[in-house]
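**User:** Once you have settled down, spend some time on the protein underneath, comparing sequence with structure tokens, and judge whether sequence predicts the tokens.
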Amino acid sequence: MTSTLKHKRILLKISGEALCGSTGGFGIDPTTLRNVCLELAEVHALGAQLGLVIGGGNIFRGLKGSAQGMDRTSADYMGMLATVINGLAVQDALEKCGVPTRVMSAIQINQVAEPYIRRRAIRHLEKGRAVIFAAGTGNPYFSTDTAAALRAMEICADALCKATKVEGVFTKDPVKYTDATMLRRITYDRFIQERMGVMDATAVTLCRDNKLPIRVFALGERGNIQRVVQGEDIGTLVHEQGE
């Protein structure tokens, strides 16, 4: 049913915290994990090719470790390993939903994941396998947002889709400010200049320089991932034209 899809191949970035459910921001909630993967399975059944980058903040966040006195490089590598743990959890849940899946790691951990090789990743996608890109870029000082932007370009994704806790990009933090307004369209440059907190500037700059559209939307609303691949105008679109 690929004719109904606007985006045949997407890179979906999901934060580690999205897997927590109501567990207080730490760990993996099995029910939440299953619900997310059931929705991904439905999208996969439509014929969409799925690349996934899962954050690691529900297990360990490198910046937080660094702020508490850890060496930044060591803390970032610990964060990369956290994304591998989440990637394995998502792989297990997806395969229980009937979706063939591969985890590809940017750091070598051959007992549990394939090494990341671009051509092999694209071939997995062409064969109908969901590909989870783990361990960020394999380098410290880069976020999983930047890893998602990089992998999206490498696999020639039609869009970078970021599933978050909020509905889109707001003028200010909607959790703290009741007068925050959601932006339906925003240019890359405005996003960077106004330091919107949803995604880091390095990732957005990378997308701007390569003209890759970014769709920011709420993961919590059932069916949103399917709406995105079918081209519905939900959340916020970050692109060249803007408002």
User: Anything to note?
Assistant: The chain has eight helices and eleven strands.
